[in-house]
Amino acid sequence: MVGFRRASGVLIVVLVVMTTTIANGTAPDPKGGKEPGPTGATAPVTATAPGAALGAKGGSLDVKASGAKGDGTTDDGPAFMAAWKTACEAGGTITVPKGEYLVNSVEFLGPCKGPVTLEMHGNLKAPATVKAVKEHSGWVNFDNVADFTLNGNGAIFDGQGSLAWKANDCAKTGTCNSLPINIRFTGLTNSLIKGITSKNSKLFHVNILNCKNVTFEGIGIDAPPESLNTDGIHIGRSIGIKLNGAKIKTGDDCVSIGDGTEDLTVENVECGPGHGIAIGSLGRYPNEQPVKGVIVRKCIIKNTMNGVRIKTWPGSPPGIVSNILFEDITMDNVGTPVLIDQEYCPYGHCKAGVPSKVKLSDVTIKNIKGTSATKVAVKLICSKGTPCTNIALADINLVHNGKEGPAVSACSNIKPITTGKLIPAPCTEVGVSGP
Ligand SMILES: *[C@@H]1O[C@H](CO)[C@@H](O)[C@H](O)[C@H]1NC(C)=O
């Protein structure tokens, strides 16, 4: 986790104005500044006009008929854009036959006049060259589309990021957002995305922002552990997102959940290598919206730095995290399987010692089993200024097999409500419990 420099104040103001048109005044920069914000290209989300959908029934369009070569060397971006334009004008299906389609940055922009389906049987490939892009922009972008279906059939979106990771010097400079995010979904409503894999992204793999009622199924994320800032799936300022079924191997958080996320379900996700499944970081910037109603369940987390965690910055403006459930999760050799960290401060980019004002309440952590790679398996560090309330632990069995002895819990500013069998023993007071 590296601190990122934000865009200039002037740019932020512009982004706020653009964002408000689609997201009711949400903050410009979730996820501690590394969060990809909106691109400039945002128009209001408009549901398909009822009349337009009825009259317009587009047929099926083959990208090869629009001029795509699929030979892995020709830039097929213009052909994809041409097919999209036609489909978007009436609704219809774009088919992508088998092949390797090299595309430079592409934007599939709505609103469209009828439902559009992208049916893929081939793979997309980005140029490997490292070119600085506008902050927070993406390689493949889907913007402001309603009733959209992406049927990947296993299609790979290969960002060819290995050169970019070597060039990524954000640990030194504090700016990492000038590399493209692999796939961005911005302002989608009532849509279904399934059967795609994001591979070797230059920066984040998949970013979901300002979306409403979108389901993601059968998603693959694939990058080596040493890839930098390659968060798997980031969700922010979105309502009613379902992520059901994902296999995520990457160099940063597998799933990260930013401000303004409500009514999110994450299920059947396999994570590792990576940094785990995280809510946050939150509280780095003003005007962050609450995170409410998040369910993470039936996941397997393996060989990762963390398991499930909530992280907020010290010295933060007020914020809210409530109604969170982490349930039925298997940990296999995970650094810190259960972690609340309200003193999250990577690289010292915070006002350490000033308590976080992000309020955590109604969090249930239930049926978590497996192995912890370190002795402190359950670590609950809440804010001194705004202690956590109503945090429930139930049926936890986390084993540590190390020379340091069995697993323990550590906590501060929290009195968890405990039920069922808990290994390690919970701490009820500030301090460390267990043998
Ligand atoms: C949510 O989106 C799906 C398409 O994925 C659609 O079938 C469903 O009707 C939508 N639900 C609502 C409440 O609009």
TrEMBL record:
- Major site of localization recorded for this protein: secreted
One matching Pfam family is Glyco_hydro_28
Show the GO MF annotations: hydrolase activity, hydrolyzing O-glycosyl compounds
Organism field: Cardamine amara subsp. amara
Residue numbers annotated as active site: H275
Q: Which domain of life is it from?
A: Eukaryota
Q: Which PROSITE patterns match?
A: POLYGALACTURONASE
Q: Does the keyword Secreted apply?
A: yes
Q: Which UniProt keywords apply?
A: Cell wall, Cell wall biogenesis/degradation, Glycosidase, Hydrolase, Secreted, Signal
The name on file for this protein is: Polygalacturonase
